[in-house]
Specification:
13 helices; 15% strand; globular; 9 strands
C-alpha cells in the first residue's frame, strides 16, 4: 500500500486553492467593475427639496434643524409610519401595448420621463393564477434579466419585468446610467426608493385586475432591497427571492465597490451614522419584524466573494431570518457581485430562482 498523504498537506493545499480562487474572483470583479468608464462623481446634496412631498414632512417642520438632523427626523417618522410612507392610490391609466405595460407613477418627480412607469410583460398559460415580478439590478439595461423572464415564461410562469426608477425606458435624456436612483443626493435616493416600492405595488394591482392572485417577486442587488421593502408592505407577495441580499442600505453604498464614486462625494460632507439615519425609512432592517408577521416563503441568495453587498451584511439578514423564524431557504453561489451575471454562475443562480418559484408560487 502507498504511504498516506499527511492531513496537514491536504489542509495546506486546500487553503492555497481557496486563496487562489478568491484572488481570481477579486481580480475578475475589479475588471468587470472598471470596464464601465461612464461613472460620474456628482456633487453632494442633502436633497431637502425631495422630502417636501413625503407624508412625514407634513408632520415635521424643519424648525432650525440642520439638514442631517431634519432628514434623520423624517427617516424615523417614515419608518414608524411606513404604511403611509409607502402608501399610494392605484393608477387609473394602465395601458398594455406590445407587451409593454405603462402607467403614471403615483410618485411625481421633476422629470417627465421618470414619471411614467414601465414593465415588460411575458405572458404564459397558467390556470393557477400565478405571476412573477422581476426587479433588475442597479443600472441594468433594457435587455438585461430578459433571459430570466423568458425562462420563467417557458416554465409556465407569467412574468413582469419592472423598469426601476431612472432606468432604461425611464432614463433621463443625456444620461448613460441611472445616477438618480442611488446617488450622493441623500433625499433623492430616498424618494427614488419610495417610488420604486410604490410602482411595484401598482404592478401587483394591475396583475390582480388581469385575474392573477398568487404572486412571487425576484429582486437582484438594488432590486433585492426594493423587493424586500415592497414585500414587507404588501402581503400579496408570498414567494420572495432576494438575489444578493443585505440587511442595510447605507452601509452597502458606503462600503461597496460599485459605489466608490458616490462615497467620494460623501467624504467630508456626511458620515455613515448620519447617512444611516437619513436613509432609515428605506432600510430593510427597519422592517424585518413586520416581514416576519406575514405568511411568506423566502429564498436568500448571496455570493461568497461579493465586493458590493459585503458578506457581513448578507449574514446579518440571514441571522434576522433565523432569529425571527422566517420560512426561508439559503443558496450560495461561489462568485462575486459582478461575476454573478457571468457564465457559469448565472446559470446556477437561475436554477435556484426558477426551482424556488416552481415549488412555492
Amino acid at each position: 500500500m502507498g504511504a498516506l498523504v499527511p492531513l496537514r498537506w491536504i489542509y495546506r493545499a486546500r487553503v492555497e486553492l481557496n486563496r487562489a480562487y478568491r484572488q481570481r474572483m477579486d481580480d475578475w470583479e475589479m475588471k468587470l467593475m472598471t470596464a464601465a468608464t461612464n461613472r460620474v462623481v456628482r456633487p453632494f446634496d442633502w436633497g431637502l427639496d425631495w422630502a417636501e412631498h413625503w407624508p412625514s414632512a407634513r408632520e415635521i417642520a424643519r424648525n432650525g434643524h440642520d439638514p442631517a438632523g431634519y432628514l434623520a427626523a423624517l427617516g424615523e417618522a417614515g419608518s414608524r409610519a411606513s404604511e403611509e410612507f409607502f402608501g399610494y392610490q392605484t393608477p387609473t391609466d394602465f395601458q398594455l401595448r406590445d407587451d409593454i405595460l405603462s402607467f403614471t407613477s403615483p410618485v411625481r418627480t421633476p422629470y417627465a420621463e421618470n414619471n411614467i412607469a414601465h414593465a415588460q410583460w411575458f405572458p404564459a398559460s397558467d390556470r393557477k393564477g400565478r405571476a412573477i415580478i422581476v426587479l433588475p439590478h442597479w443600472n441594468a439595461k433594457v435587455n438585461e434579466h430578459v433571459g430570466l423572464c423568458k425562462a420563467l415564461q417557458y416554465l409556465g410562469l407569467p412574468t413582469l419585468r419592472v423598469s426601476l426608477p431612472y432606468h432604461d425606458r425611464r432614463m433621463l435624456p443625456g444620461f448613460e446610467r441611472a445616477d438618480y436612483a442611488v446617488s450622493s443626493n441623500v433625499g433623492r435616493t430616498v424618494d427614488s426608493t419610495r417610488q420604486a416600492v410604490i410602482d411595484i405595488r401598482c404592478c401587483l394591482d394591475w396583475l390582480e385586475s388581469q385575474g392573477y392572485h398568487r404572486f412571487g417577486i425576484i429582486g437582484t442587488s438594488l432590486g433585492s432591497a426594493y423587493a424586500f421593502l415592497a414585500s414587507a408592505h404588501d402581503a400579496r407577495l408570498r414567494a420572495n427571492v432576494y438575489n444578493m441580499v443585505s440587511l442595510y442600505f447605507a452601509d452597502v453604498v458606503w462600503t461597496g465597490l460599485s459605489t466608490l464614486h458616490i462615497r467620494q462625494s460623501f467624504d467630508g460632507n456626511v458620515d455613515l451614522p448620519q447617512l444611516q439615519a437619513a436613509w432609515r425609512a428605506i432600510t430593510p432592517a427597519e422592517y424585518v419584524h413586520r416581514y416576519s408577521t406575514m405568511k411568506k416563503k423566502s429564498l436568500f441568495i448571496y455570493a461568497t466573494y461579493d465586493s458590493t453587498f459585503l458578506r457581513q451584511y448578507s449574514d446579518a439578514m440571514l441571522e434576522e431570518a433565523r432569529l425571527r423564524e422566517f420560512d426561508h431557504d439559503v443558496a450560495v453561489v461561489p462568485c462575486g457581485h459582478y461575476t454573478m451575471g457571468r457564465t457559469p454562475f448565472r446559470y446556477l443562480d437561475g436554477y435556484h430562482i426558477c426551482n424556488f418559484f416552481l415549488r412555492n408560487v
